Amino acid sequence: MELLDRISSTLQKGEDEQVAELTKQAIDENIPAQDILDNGLIAGMNVIGEQFRKHEIFLPEVLLAAKAMYAGMDLLKPLFIKEKVPTQGKVVIGTVHGDLHDLGKNLVGIMLKGAGFDVIDLGKDVPAEKFVEAAKTEDAGVIGMSALLTTTMPVMKKVVELLKENGLEDAVKTIIGGAPASEDFADEIGVNAYGFDAGKAVELVKELTGKK
Amino acid sequence: MARIHSRKGYKLKQIIDFKIAEINPDGRDVLLHQGIPKGVEVPERIRVLLAEGVDIFRRTAQPKGVIEEVSLNQFENTFVGEGKNIRDVILERIYPKSDHLALYVLTMGEDVSSRIEKMFNEGDYALGSMLDAVASLAADKASEVFEEFYRDYLDSEEKLNPGEFVLSYSPGYCGWHISGQKKLFDRLKPGLIGVTLNDSYLMTPLKSVSGVLVGGNKEIHIFDNNFEYCKECKHESCLDRMKRIQTI
Ligand code: B12
Ligand code: SF4
Description:
By secondary structure, chain A is of the alpha/beta class. In chain A, 58% of the residues lie in helices and 10% in strands. In chain A, strands 2-1-3-4-5 form a five-stranded parallel beta sheet, sandwiched between helices. In chain A, strand 3 (142-146), helix 7 (154-165) and strand 4 form a beta-alpha-beta unit. Chain A is globular. The two termini of chain A are 26 Å apart. By secondary structure, chain B is of the alpha+beta class. Chain B has nine helices and seven strands; from the N terminus they run E-H-H-H-E-H-H-E-H-H-E-H-E-E-E-H. At the A-B interface, helix 4 and helix 5 of A face helix 3, helix 6 and helix 7 of B. The structure holds cobalamin and iron/sulfur cluster. Iron/sulfur cluster is lined by residues 90, 173-174, 225, 227, 229-230, 233, 236-238 of chain B.
């Protein structure tokens, strides 16, 4: 559909106002919200993700495109609630307690949303209990944790322990990232995955949720 | 940089207001921090973002620092910190050979960090991320300005011998445990410039740096970076620093 292609290509150029206008036009033309999302917004964001992975475009361009995507999403949201359109899955993310570095966590959230996940961002300085509580109440399939300081990494281990205590270790998968995290550390504390960057985060969350 | 208030025979202790012009990072370095290699064609819209980020930084940053000279004994106590240092910290080989030591904390102020947060909350991710990079690099650069400041001070006091050089070292790097900041804060009291430390040794505002300025013969700052912890080091910033000294 030509209009959805235009949404996708305008999104790729990061033109948020124009994406909003085109999305509105698509809604007015009674194109189903799911179609606009999948074949307009997410399709455009997928191209951006792929180009970024291949180093054809740079981070600021991805972020401009993400803003454009949300401009369209904001208009679709009310329709989704009515139509109960399913997402790729729910992911709870946050920067662990004691740490306020949230740039990396924010980028991960933006990329996950761009890939169609429903992201519950708990912000920064998040205690282990709050991650688990949110995963329970939101019925999330994945918890993503970020830490930039070695001193705040034990919180990640505590989340794994709390999930076990609550019998949730199979229902809720865990993924970590940030400078001091590593695959070895993830194995050591029993986390399901470690993501080096935001692109890898999307790939791994898709694997963890069986969307790949 | 502010004028040096020195009184002969007294140890230096001073609060400093940095000028934006002296800590403004190079645009190409900011882009590199955003993952854009030097030498590639930069799209116009990214150049616009960069200019905007630099401009907002200029208007919101309140860069300040505090510096205090310490004796070798006093520094030894700070360095040991909470007793969590890795064995064979490179700084442990350097500072005992130094002639001058000064603790410092510097910050870009709270407003830049709140501005970045606001941008992310409002969906201005690209600009928020650009401003974040500008502020991070400016904080790094301010450490270098502090090195120059201390060198000038020592020079003005006629305490700097030919061939002597000042370089900064920070807790959290090269085996010096991040908890080293606790005693550094106890001594320096950077609350005076609005910087606090939490239980995980994180400074607020986020764009802040702490460390020690080590003055001495430039040879003391040169070493082989083959320590156990170097294996996992992703930045190897020591190489640039050593190169910088050797060209002087
Ligand atoms: C820029 C920087 C600074 C800047 C700004 C700080 C900031 N972040 O705002 C300045 C110069 C101010 C600074 C200061 C300090 N820093 Co600093 N800093 C860095 C540096 C070089 C980059 C951080 C950054 O902005 N990265 C960019 C973002 C986008 O990347 P990111 O957060 O890592 O996120 C990406 C991935 O990690 C991943 N990811 C992140 N979260 C998640 C979550 C999930 C679920 C997944 C899957 C993936 C994922 O995806 C993200 C996007 O691609 C790191 C080193 C590094 N390689 O990370 C050190 C680093 C964080 N700093 C360090 C230290 C020690 C300090 C200081 C304590 C030094 C000092 N004594 O002054 C201070 C502390 C500041 C404070 N407020 O307390 C250490 C911490 C080590 C430790 N022992 O804990 C590091 C790791 C450097 C090192 N030694 O190797 N720092
Ligand atoms: S390689 Fe890295 S850890 Fe080793 S001395 Fe250099 S900067 Fe420090």
